[in-house]
Amino acid sequence: MERQPLWTRNFTILTLGTVISMLGNAISGFALSLLILDYTGSTLLYAIFMVVYNLPKIIMPSIAGPYLDRFSRTKVIWSLDYLSAGLYLIIFFLLQGGVFNYALLLFLCIIIGTIDSVYLVAYDSLYPMLISEGNYAKAYSISSMIYPLSALMVPVASWCYEHVGLTPLFLFNAATFAIAATFETQIRLKETQVSSTQERYSLSRYRDDFKQGISYLKQEKGLLVITAYFVVSTMVGNGVSTLILPYFKSQESLGVMTYTWVMGCSVFGRLVGGIVHYRFRYPTAKKFAIAFFVYIMSALIDASYLFTPVLLMMLLQFISGLICVTSFNIRISSTQNYVPNEMRGRFNGTFQMLTTAGAIFGQLLAGALGDILPIRPIVVVMNAVSITAAILIMYRGRNHVKPIYNVDI
Q1: How many helices (H) and strands (E) does the chain have?
Q2: Taking a C-beta distance cutoff of 8 angstroms, is the pair 65, 214 a contact?
Q3: How far apart are CA 167 and CA 111, in angstroms?
Q4: Which of 349, 328, 275 is nearest to 69 (CA)?
Q5: C-alpha angle with apex 127: 150 to 144, nearest 5 degrees?
Q6: Concatenated DSSP letters of 43-67
Q7: Helix (H, G, I), strand (E, B), or coil: what is residue 4?
Q8: Angle 155-156-157 (CA atoms, 0-180°, nearest 5)?
């Protein structure tokens, strides 16, 4: 049977809107970091800023999930984009007027972190609804290429910082979010999860929906195995990434510029991997085996590349980015296809909450260990933990995961 086209009106609108807002977001994230460092000159205040931004990502996804399984995800997405545009416009006017208040910016940062965390759950839950049958893998290959493309905006932001200052960057970001939201208002979709009943959505109804989401994850052993593994994997990944820049800065033979080139190869690898995944379909019966191979191989690369010459570092990071985008596409396309639409918000919210908690724990643990121990052995041990988790959780639970991964989508 001939496959339906991927680039439908709704899919094209959401993809274009996401690209536009992501480009602006890449610039604003860079600009906010520089803004805090420039105005405060304090690493501690910068660290507090980052923690405050991430805190809502632990709480809000699980809170938003039940709501997003009852109401329109499309409206939530474009409403949050318009709200983001307004917030960045406020920051622009504050800077334009010469007014800067760290406490106020911290408050705005909490709001931005909350918006981002809810938006991610809404986006992840809406995106599968816009994919035509048989095109899940191809669609998520498109999604996986947006982040590497947006990363190309960071050098542009750096040039603007040097030549025109930070203030115009926030105006640009406000404009990108407003444009993206306007695109998204044109999505026409019957959202089957929207409650047709006229019953008022009460706190008790919300509580019941929340409990159903937790029960669903407990009953679905395959999803439980995947979630448990990715909590550990995200903890290790974020912990290790916290140590990489300090390691490069501490080595006279390396430095920040070398770090930029090495990490840039990983981003380029992800972009190439996304293109490959878009053009070629992996054997359905081998998807779990491919993903498991990537889990082990990427951990081995991350554990070893700091011990190699720079050119080999760059090659290994390119390979890592190339293969990691493959496992990402297999995981997210398979789980979003498997989870029923009416449960998708709750699953995505719970998954985001647990993996974010793991990420923050990994960052704090790695940061604490990095102050008292050499960095490279810490990286090796943390990746050994990741490999152990892949074997004890993912491989042992393969009979539950294969029915989710090994599907022709």
Answers
A1: 16, 0
A2: no
A3: 20
A4: 349
A5: 35
A6: HHHHHHHHHHHHTHHHHHHHHHHHH
A7: coil
A8: 90
CA angle 148, 151, 153 (to 5 degrees): 135
Burial class (CB in 10 A: 0-12, 13-18, 19+), 291: buried
CB 36 within 8 A of CB 46: yes
As a residue count, the chain comes to: 409
- Say which amino acid occupies 203: L
Q: Is 5 exposed, middle or buried (0-12, 13-18, 19+ CB in 10 A)?
A: exposed
- Rg of the chain over all Cα atoms, to the nearest angstrom: 21
3-state secondary structure (DSSP) of residue 5: coil
- Taking only the tens place, the pLDDT of each residue in 246-265 is 788 777 788 767 887 888 88
Query: Could you tell me the two tokens for 63?
Result: 């809170």
> For tokens 């920040």, what's the residue?
256
Spell 314-326 as b/e; 16+ CB within 10 A means b: bbbbbbbbbbbbb
pLDDT for 151-210, tens place per residue?
A: 777 667 767 767 777 788 888 889 989 999 999 999 888 887 675 544 555 667 667 767
Residue 360: Cβ within 10 Å count:
19
* Prediction pTM value: 0.80
Q: Which of 128, 133, 126, 10 is nearest to 409 (CA)?
A: 133
Closest CA to 327 of 294, 302, 278: 294
